[in-house]
């Protein structure tokens, strides 16, 4: 199963992921079209700042999802096959217990329609909108084992760079 | 995100060269455009502000997070300020170009710039009369004073119909001085000054009018005096104008102060001999972008292409020198020229580029410098690698050079025949189609399809800039193109022997279109905003186009933009520019990327205007 991973050291805080998320969850699914949507389209992930570090916070679709456990109406459920935790807006009564209980604070409140909003991992898209919109590769969408590959490739590039910077003075001398 | 060559351009020469470039691993603007995706949504909506260092700030377009910048600026304020700065930059470009021309004109008039001469005495006399001066130097001083004028209004404002001047006066947007209005844009948009989006946009109109009826118009008029007022001439267009067995020099940029000198130097017998000694059959100068238009409409010098073809020209491997001055020159050219023998030569102290050799053109010794530049190109011909040369065998013929004077001349000395055909309904109206290329639009797709649809519906098209070049490449600038026009326009074109699309020159020459509008309005006893006319910039990208759009709308013309301007993040600004302004200047903007739908909007507007005029 592919998952969205975050590489926080790359995040510039541009919030492109937030806009793309809101647009993907709008009527027209286009930036310019979404401008006139009522109620306004809402994002499902949040770029936060901790000191000088910026990073997007988004739903992890937890294995033991607290938001599913606390939902009294059955609006929130976890798909057994895909593992994706989604909300059925028709069943949601807006009690917002899920929003209160979420460890990551990534269940939002749509006050006008009084429903809770969360990441559905863009079920119509091959690559989620936030990942597609990220200009720096902070958000990546892949299998857990692929992440390890990327990690080792990054590490080897860093090592090579360190080697190069060490060897340059010797060449010059 | 286009990967397929046919999705990138409709021009067969561009398509061919894109394939060549891809095979050779050469990067073009289209590749870099793809790498820029996704483009920033805040930027697309105009919602980011970097005007002070409390920011950068940006507004959440959906009202969830920040609805104000640190200073409290709303979306309306931020979008209006950003737009005003774009207008200021665009107006600066045209006007600083004009300043250079005026400065050279003055040096020439004082006998200090022997490379330049007066080519149009009649226009010189007319201009001296208009300014009320008796000597050429006094005219130069009077024109140069327009830039630093404090209380205005600038002289050429009086060329507008009386009703139009009245509208500007009542709105308080008569330009006082060219530089002053631009400075005021910058002042108003800095932290904590003007925070009323309507007041900001009024200044935008004022600064843009100082461009259209000031800087641009000065550039056109003085260039006509120094290099000749264009008259119809036949020429060739597209990358196929490059010649495998000749020294190829491309002049690219905007100011004919350079390109005219290169054209002269290229026929210098000494250099032609040198070229022959190098084994070349001669020296071939071709233009690119608006400086190309300048020498195209005045001398019929071939045009190698429009904005998005600058890299493709270098990729032919047949360009011995790419000589540039200012504006629309991609900094990517340096690295690309480095893949070939091509010498990339910058000439303006205002514009230097990585990878370029700088050979500065000074007014006092322009011709000598031009000769040196041509010599470099000729010598460089010997280093050309024939195995790398690929010139598409694609070019089209065009008739260009329809200055207002030439149009009036073609009509027999008066605009009356044109007005009669409009009154009779044979020609429904006039459309100005102008502007850039932009990789957001398949190259020339917006231009060519919009123009074709307009002429098919009996709308006479006047054109400048990259649109004019797109039309030239598509064969629309030939009298034979009248066969693509509706019956009424076709008959008029056949009778006069003119194309249905009239090439009026470079981007500063949109001032010619303003002069033509004023003359037609005066002849009909109405205002420009009453005319059965409309404008469009189907593939615009430059800040200059923003300034142009603003002065065209500010002059009362309905104008369609084919790429979406970064203003939609503000309801206030969007509403004002597309609706509210109608009751203020009589013009308005509309955004329509589909050329056929854009044509329909323009035609509907023209028909509504006809009805109002009782035609």
Stretches of chain A where pLDDT is under 50 for at least 5 consecutive residues are 169-173
Number of domains of chain A: 1
Q: Give the strand content of chain B.
A: 5-15%
Question: CATH architecture of chain A, please?
Answer: 2-Layer Sandwich
Strands of the widest sheet of chain B, in order across it, are 6-5-4-7-8-9
Largest sheet of chain A: 2 strands, antiparallel
Overall CATH class of the largest domain in chain B: Alpha Beta
Order of helices and strands of chain A: EHHEEHEEHEEHEH
Cα radius of gyration of chain A in angstroms: 20 Å
Regarding quaternary structure, what we see is: heterodimer
Looking at the structure, the CATH topology of chain A is Alpha-Beta Plaits
The mean pLDDT of chain A is: 88
Structural class of chain B: alpha/beta
Q: What ranges of chain B have pLDDT less than 50 throughout 5 or more consecutive residues?
A: none
Cα-to-Cα separation, first versus last residue of chain A: 52 Å
Q: What radius of gyration of chain B results from the CA coordinates?
A: 23 Å
In helices, the fraction of residues of chain A equals 25-40%
Question: In percent, how much strand structure appears in the residues of chain A?
Answer: 15-25%
* Shape designation of chain A: globular
Specify the overall morphology of chain B.
globular
Instruction: State the CATH topology of the largest domain in chain B.
Output: Rossmann fold
């Amino acid at each position: 199963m592919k998952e969205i991973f975050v590489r926080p050291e790359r995040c510039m805080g541009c919030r492109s992921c937030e806009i793309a998320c809101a647009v993907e969850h709008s009527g027209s699914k286009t930036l310019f079209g979404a401008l006139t949507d009522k109620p306004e389209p809402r994002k499902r992930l949040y770029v936060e700042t901790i000191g000088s570090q910026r990073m997007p916070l988004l739903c992890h679709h937890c294995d033991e999802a607290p938001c599913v456990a606390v939902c009294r109406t059955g609006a929130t459920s976890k798909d057994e096959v895909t593992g994706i935790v989604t909300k059925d807006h028709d069943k949601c009564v807006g009690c917002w217990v899920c929003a209160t209980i979420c460890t990551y604070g990534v269940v939002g409140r749509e006050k006008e329609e009084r429903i809770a909003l969360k990441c559905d991992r863009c079920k119509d898209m091959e690559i989620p909108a936030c990942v597609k919109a990220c200009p720096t590769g902070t958000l990546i969408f892949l299998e857990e084992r692929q992440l390890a590959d990327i990690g080792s490739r990054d590490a080897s590039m860093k090592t090579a760079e360190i080697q190069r910077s060490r060897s340059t003075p010797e060449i010059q001398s | 995100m286009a990967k397929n060559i046919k999705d990138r351009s409709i021009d067969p020469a561009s398509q061919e060269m894109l394939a060549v470039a891809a095979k050779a691993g050469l990067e073009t603007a289209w590749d870099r455009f793809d790498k820029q995706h996704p483009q920033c949504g805040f930027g697309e909506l105009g919602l980011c502000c970097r005007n002070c260092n409390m920011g950068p700030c940006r507004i959440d377009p959906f009202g969830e997070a920040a609805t104000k910048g640190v200073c409290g600026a709303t979306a309306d304020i931020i979008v209006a300020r950003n737009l005003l700065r774009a207008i200021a930059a665009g107006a600066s470009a045209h006007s600083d170009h004009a300043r250079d021309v005026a400065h050279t004109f003055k040096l020439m008039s004082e006998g200090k710039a022997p490379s330049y001469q007066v080519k149009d005495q009649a226009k010189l006399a007319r201009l001296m009369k208009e300014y009320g001066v008796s000597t050429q130097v006094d005219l130069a001083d009077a024109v140069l004073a327009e830039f630093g004028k404090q209380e205005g209004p600038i002289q050429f404002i009086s060329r507008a119909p009386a009703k139009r001047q009245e509208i500007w006066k009542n709105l308080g947007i008569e330009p006082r001085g060219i530089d002053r209005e631009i400075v005021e844009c910058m002042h108003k948009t800095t932290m904590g000054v003007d925070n009323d989006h309507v007041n900001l946009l009024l200044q935008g109109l004022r600064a843009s009018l100082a461009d259209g009826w000031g800087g641009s118009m000065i550039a056109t008029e003085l260039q006509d005096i120094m290099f000749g007022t264009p008259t119809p001439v036949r020429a060739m267009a597209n990358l196929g104008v490059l010649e495998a067995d000749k020294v190829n020099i491309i002049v690219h940029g905007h100011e004919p102060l350079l390109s005219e000198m290169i054209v002269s130097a290229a026929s210098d017998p000494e250099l032609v001999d040198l070229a022959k000694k190098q084994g070349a059959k001669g020296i071939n100068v071709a233009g690119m972008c608006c400086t190309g238009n300048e020498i195209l409409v005045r001398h019929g010098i071939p045009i190698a292409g429009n904005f998005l073809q600058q890299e493709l020209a270098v990729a032919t491997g047949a360009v011995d020198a790419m000589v540039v001055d200012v504006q629309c020159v991609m900094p990517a050219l340096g690295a690309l020229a480095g893949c070939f023998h091509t010498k990339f030569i910058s000439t303006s102290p205002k514009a230097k580029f990585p990878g370029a050799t700088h050979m500065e053109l000074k007014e006092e010794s322009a011709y000598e410098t031009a000769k040196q530049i041509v010599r470099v190109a000729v010598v460089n011909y010997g280093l050309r690698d024939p195995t790398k040369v690929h010139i598409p065998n694609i070019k089209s013929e065009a008739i260009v050079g329809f200055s207002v004077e030439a149009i009036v001349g073609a009509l027999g000395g008066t605009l009356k025949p044109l007005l009669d055909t409009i009154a009779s309904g044979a020609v429904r109206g006039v459309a100005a189609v102008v502007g850039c290329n932009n990789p957001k639009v398949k190259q020339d797709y917006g231009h060519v399809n919009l123009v074709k649809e307009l002429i098919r519906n009996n709308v006479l098209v006047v054109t400048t800039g990259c649109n004019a070049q797109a039309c030239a490449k598509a064969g629309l600038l030939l009298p034979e193109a009248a066969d693509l026009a509706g019956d009424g326009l076709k008959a008029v074109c056949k009778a006069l022997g003119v194309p249905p699309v009239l090439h009026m020159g470079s981007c500063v020459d949109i001032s010619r279109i303003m002069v033509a509008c004023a003359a037609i309005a005066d002849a009909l006893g109405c205002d420009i905003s009453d005319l059965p006319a409309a404008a469009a910039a189907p593939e615009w990208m430059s800040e200059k186009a923003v300034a142009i759009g603003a002065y065209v709308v500010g002059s009362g013309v309905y104008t369609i933009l084919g790429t979406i301007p970064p203003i939609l993040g503000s309801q206030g600004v969007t509403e004002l520019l597309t609706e509210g302004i109608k009751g203020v200047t009589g013009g308005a903007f509309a955004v329509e990327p589909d050329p056929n739908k854009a044509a329909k909007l323009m035609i509907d507007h023209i028909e509504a205007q006809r009805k109002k005029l009782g035609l």
